[in-house]
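#structure-requests
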Amino acid sequence: STLDRSSAASDVYKRQRFYLLQRVQDAFAALSETDQANVKSMLSTCGMGDILDVTIDRRIGRKDNNEVWI
C-alpha cells in the first residue's frame, strides 16, 4: 500500500540523516581542539551549534549501498 511504501521510505531517509550526522560528528571528533573551537563558533553563528550535541543510541554502517544499524 501507499502507506507502507511511505513508511519504508521514511525509515530509509531517517537512517541516511543519522548516517550523515554520525559522519559529521566523527570528523569533528578527529579535529584538534583549536579546529573544534573554530567549527563550534561557525556552527553557532549559523544557529546550528546544537548539532554536535545530538546523539543516537547506536552506530550506522553501510551494507550493499544502504545505511544499516550496527
